[in-house]
Amino acid sequence: MTKRILSLLMCLLLVAGMAAVAEEAAQTDYTAGTPWMDPDILGNVTEDTPTDPKDNFALYVNKDSILSAEMPSGVPAAGPSIDAELQTFYDMVDMYKQDAPEGHDAQLAYNLYWLLMDWDSRNAVGVEPLKQLTDKVEAISSIEEMSRYLVETPSEEQIHSVWQAGGTVNFNDSSSMIFAVMPKELMLGDAGEYTQETQLGTLTREATGVFVQKMLVKLGYTEEEAAAKYQNCLDFEGMLAPAMYPDSVKKSPEYISLINNILTLDEMKALQGNVPILEVNTAMGYPEMDQYMVGEPEYIKKLNELWTDENLTLIKDCFIVHGMTSYASRLDRECYDWQQELQNTISGTSGGTLPDEMKCSGTVSSLLKWPVAQLYSETYLKQEDKERIARMVEEIRAAYHGILNEADWLTEETRAKAIEKLEAIQKNVLYPDSWEPYSCEELNFAGPQEGGTLWDAYMVIDRYGVQESVKLMEEPLDHTKWPDEAKPNTYNCFYMPNYNGIYILGAYTRPLGDISALSDEELYAKLGVTIGHEFSHAFDPTGSQFDKDGNMNLWWTEEDGTAFYEKTAKLVAFYDAIQPWEGQSYDGNIVSGEACADLAGMKVVLRIAAEKEGFDYDAFFRAYAENYMMVMTPELALQLSADTHPLNYLRINVVLQHFDEFLNLYDIHEGDGMYLAPEDRVDIW
Known about the structure:
By secondary structure, the protein is mainly alpha-helical. Among the domains are: 127-330, Neutral endopeptidase, domain 2, CATH 1.10.1380; 381-432 and 482-680, Collagenase (Catalytic Domain), CATH 3.40.390.10. The protein has 29 helices and 9 strands. The strands form 3 sheets. A 4-stranded mixed sheet has the order 2-3-5-4. Helix 3 (80-96) crosses helix 17 and helix 24 (558-576) packs across helix 25 (588-609).
C-alpha cells in the first residue's frame, strides 16, 4: 500500500507541475511586446484591435486573416506555411491511395505506408519487440557487459546509446567524408536546462515524465519503478550536461567552428578511454580512419569518467527511458497515441491530433527519403516551373554582384573572393535532374500483403541506412548529389555551406500554383526574397567561414572580418532589445544569421524591383507580409522564440523598417512604430 501511495503522489505532482506551468503562461501578458505586440499569438488580436501600417505592419496586413484562421486538429498553429506543409502531407497520402505504383523504390514507399496504417497487425504485435530490447538491457550486470552489448548488438537492435556517430562532410576538405562523433540528444533537449531550467524545460520534463511512466508500466514495471527510472535518466544526463554546449551556443554562428575538432586515431583512442566508440564503429562496418571529427570532446571525456560500474544503473535506465520515446511510434495504437499526447502537451495543441494517414505519410518520408521524393516529384512537380525558377535564381545571382561591388567596407581582395564564391554557388531547383544516384534497389522488406510487420521493416531500413553510410565513407563526395536534407517533398529552402549550394525544394513552391501566371510582385515577395535569403547565407556569420569549394577556410582579411562582425554585432544588439511579450528576452546571437539573410533577401529583390517599370510596391510588401502570417499557441511561441529564425511578425516588421522604399511608400516618420532612424539600420550586404 505504501508503494502505491508514493507512486500516485508522484503522478499527482507531475500533473500539478504542468498545471503550474499552464497557470504561469495564463498570467503572462502576451500583448505587452516591445517594440510591437506579437499579433501571431493566439488571442492577442481581437475585432477591436486597431491597425495602422505605420505602427505594426504585420498586424495591419494580417488582422483579418488572423481573426479568421482556424488551427487544424492536432496542429498548434495556422497560416500559409502551415497550410503548405499540411498540403504536402495530403499530397503524399493521395499517392498511396492509388493502385500500387510500378518500380521497386515506389513500391517500398507504398508498402511502408500500409504497414504503418495496419493497426490490426500493430496491435497484435503490441509492445513485445520493445520489451525484448529492454529485457536485454536489464540483464546487463557490469559496465564491461554494457560495452559488449554496444559492440555485439547490431545497431538497429540497440535500444539507445549515449553518443551518435557516422559519416559527415569533412569541413576542411569538402570532397571527402569524415567520421564524426557527437553527443546524443538529451531528454530535455537543451543541456542548459539541467543547470537552469526554463518554463519550456519544466513543461518538457513533466510532460515527458507522464508519458514515460505510462510506457514503462505497460512494459511491466511498477509505477514506482517507472518514476525511479525516469529520475535516474535525468540524473545521469545532469552529470553529462555541464560538458555539453547549451543551445545558446549550438544555435550561434560560432558553433560550427567549435565542433570542428580533428583527432588522430591515437588521440581518439585516448579520449574515449573505456567507452567503446571505435569498437562499435568497427562492428558496424566502418573502416578505421586516420582522422576523426569529435564535436564536443569534453562530453566524451566526461562520458569516460562516468562509464563505471557505480553508474551502471543510471546508464541502463537512461537507455531504457530513451527507448520509450524512440520506439513508441512504432508500436501499437495506445503507445502511438500517448506519444501524440506528449507532443500536443509540449506544443500547447488542443483538439486532437493529425489524422493517422498524414502522420504515417510523414513517417514514410523520413524513413524512405528518396523513394518518396521521386514519387512526389514525378506526381506533382513540373519541368516548366523548374526552368522558370532557375532563371529567377540567376537573376538574383546577377543582382548580388551589384550588392557585393557596392559594399564599401570590403577590401578588394575579399570582394574578389566573395564574387568568386557567388559565382560558384550551385543552384538546385525543385528536384534532381537524374534519379539514378538515389536508387534503393538493395533495400527490401515484406509488405502487409506478404505478412510483413512494421517492426521488421524498421529493422531492415535501419540496417540499410548504416550500410549506405559505410559506403559513403569509402567514396569521394559527389556534390551534385542532393543531400538527404534536400528532399523535394520538404517544405523548405536552404543553403549548405560545405556544398556551397542553395536548394529551392519542390514542396516550397507548390502552394504558389501556376508560377507562370503569378505577377512579379507576388512571385518575388513569396519566392524571390527567399532565394535571395538563401544566397546571402553564403556570406552570413556561418557561411562566411567556408570558401567557394565548401571548405572551412578563412578567406576574409582581418580588416574585413572586423568590419563584418561589427555589423552583425549591431544586428545582434538590435534583436537583444526586443521583447516579444512580457518578460520574454530575445537572443540576437541565435537569430543573427537568419536575420542577416532576411535583410539581404529583401535588399536584393528591391534592387531588381527598381529596374521593373510599374512595379507595385504596395502589392509586393503586402504579399511579403501575408506570406509570414501565422497564429500559434503561446507554448509554440515559447519554443519558436529560441529558434534560429526570428518570430514571423519580426521577419515582417524588422526587415521592412530597414528600407526607404517601405518607409517612403507608407509615409512613415519618427514617432511611428515602424520608423527606424538611418543610423540605427543595419546594412551588412
